[in-house]
Design a protein that fits this description.
Elements (H helix, E strand, L loop, with lengths): L5 H26 L4 H27 L10 H16 L3 H24 L6 H25 L3
Helix pairs in contact: 1-2, 1-3, 1-4, 2-5, 3-4, 4-5
Length: 149
């Protein structure tokens, strides 16, 4: 059975961990806003990341890699920061949107880093490229929502 190099396996598990973090972050954002369109958007993004996580786990397992469970310390800190911003910010929804944009831009960079690995199997490249393109598309959705406020 073909498997990833240790470095690629680590990068994919790191990406999976950050996908868990993003899912939790979007759920947290939906709890911290009142605007129905924003709440709906954040809930959809949380579901998308949940789906991404399952796709990544399936792909990683198919190459004989162990799956790391849970989220990262950085993700926990980011969600705590979102809570603090929602408490002290006069414009809660704008603060959540700014954090979502920042998180999505970071996700795109992380996907690009993993996609730059020349040893990725074609199936993994397809999964990652498709997910990255959905994140890029979602960024324009966030920017459209900024105009609704």
């Amino acid at each position: 059975m073909k498997t990833y190099t240790e470095e690629v396996g680590n990068k994919l598990n790191n990406l999976l961990e950050k996908t868990y973090d993003a899912e939790k972050g979007f759920k947290k954002a939906s709890e911290n806003v009142n605007h129905s369109s924003l709440k709906n958007y954040f809930n959809q993004k949380a579901q998308q990341r949940y789906d991404f996580g399952h796709e990544l786990k399936t792909e990683i397992k198919s190459f004989g890699q162990e799956i790391e469970k849970g989220g990262s310390i950085t993700g926990n800190l980011h969600r705590t920061w979102m809570d603090i911003k929602s408490l002290v910010s006069g414009d809660n929804e704008e603060a959540m949107l700014e954090e979502a944009i920042r998180g999505e831009e970071a996700s795109i960079k992380e996907y690009n880093e993993v996609l730059s690995e020349t040893s990725l199997p074609p199936s993994t490249q397809v999964v990652l490229t498709t997910q990255k393109n959905k994140i890029v598309s979602g960024l324009s959705g966030i920017r459209t929502l900024e105009d609704l406020k």
